[in-house]
Backbone:
């Protein structure tokens, strides 16, 4: 459950651009390496903050807010699967 903030909040375009850059960096790692777990966690945090900030929008739920929630959910699921994979027994 997320409480609606007491005050209205506008997300700055520079913050949005920075978060978009973080998102792209998480999924396009250099050298063909798989996405870094810490980057996925960071992106999930970015999306969580955006969701909470957008909850202060007086217009109610928006398409952008739902997209942010969906992306944060996908990041959480990816991190969960990575965690499970790291605990799985390796074939000998």
Residues:
């Amino acid at each position: 459950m997320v409480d609606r903030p007491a005050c209205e909040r506008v997300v700055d375009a520079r913050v949005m651009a920075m978060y978009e850059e973080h998102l792209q960096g998480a999924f396009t790692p250099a050298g063909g390496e798989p996405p870094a777990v810490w980057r996925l966690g960071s992106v999930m945090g970015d999306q969580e903050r955006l969701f909470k900030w957008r909850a202060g929008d007086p217009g109610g739920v928006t398409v952008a807010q739902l997209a942010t929630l969906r992306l944060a959910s996908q990041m959480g699921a990816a991190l969960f699967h990575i965690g499970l994979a790291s605990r799985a027994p390796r074939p000998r």
Observations:
- The two ends are 44 Å apart (CA to CA).
- The mean pLDDT is 78.
- The CA atoms of residues 11 and 53 lie 7 Å apart.
